[in-house]
Structure prediction request, 407 residues.
Amino acid sequence: MSTEVKVPVLGESITEATLGEWLKQPGDPVKADEPIASLETDKVSVEVPAPVAGVMGAHAVAVGDTVQVGALIASIEAGSGAPASSPAPAAPAPTPAEQPKASDGGDTPAALSPSVRRAVLEHGVDPSTVKGTGRDGRITKEDVLTASAGKTAAPAPAAPPAASDSGTTAPARGERKEERVKMTRLRQTIAKRLKEAQNTAAMLTTFNDVDMTAVIEARTKYKDLFEKKHGVRLGFMGFFVKAATMALKDIPSVNASIEGDEIVYHDYADISVAVSAPNGLVVPVIRDCQDLSVAGIEKTIGDFGRRAKDGTLKMDEMRGGTFTISNGGVFGSLMSTPIINPPQSAVLGLHRIEERPVVVNGQIVVRPMMYLALSYDHRLIDGREAVTFLVALKNAIEDPTRILIDL
Prediction:
């Protein structure tokens, strides 16, 4: 008896996905609800669970194929595993970079996803030496990049000199290589949406800077007690999200959106925060930030970060959002002009903290400063409102007591 495995409902307005990885091969035993495949959607990776227990049947689609919701992708046969007398199908010989090497205990790495295999080949990393931080110990692309960064590159052997027609030795030219890799569905969607934002919104960016002294002192003083009580580290994002929530309440147009010929104002703050995932940045949404404390915000961000790395974020957690905060400072960015995430009307860009000389009370002093950038849709938000929003945010960060007393 055979049970069909079909592409599940992926979420509102999402009708197709890309088969990113087969987690079970034909003949493998399968438990009910065990993931058998990974689908890449416009926003996140989604695992397809087995509807019943049995033996993995034939794959109906290949890795990289586009599949529609409800389409047949595989089957599960009745039984508990492939018969002992049935030889397993021969797997294609792995390339040297893919070839697992036995560890001291004889274990080898789990199956690598296509993106991880590409990273292994590009960076010449031995996967058996990489510690996987993904779900069930799987190796992620970030794991490979981290391993590559810590690996000492061996010098390339010198190419033998080429002889010219006259018999003289000509200097060898450097080898030039090209590689074509199909864009992931996530990257295609990002490109499309960002270009649509540029074509639709009247985007403008305004800047300010903020003295981080008070927040740094508060964090240094209370971080140990905070982590002990709440079980999460006290970072800077908690302060910025809370400060932004207060500023959005004062300047509601920054939290609004345009729908047709109407402006939609929101009495709540659902703030999208960019976090790193193996296939790039994803933007989950912290719901009802106006009702959350700094501790509640930090807990939510920490949970998003862990599950983004594991690829277990849900579609509903990526949907919506009335305002976005993007922290390019963690990558070393000094200043940028972030692009709006439609239908939102504004995005706040945070940048690296850098000690700079500033004038305070007529004296030149060195302070840890950060540039802030607010990109906004000028069709809805006036320059006065954008500047007022940034000033309110700056005041709250430079005097965190304002956050406590909602001032």
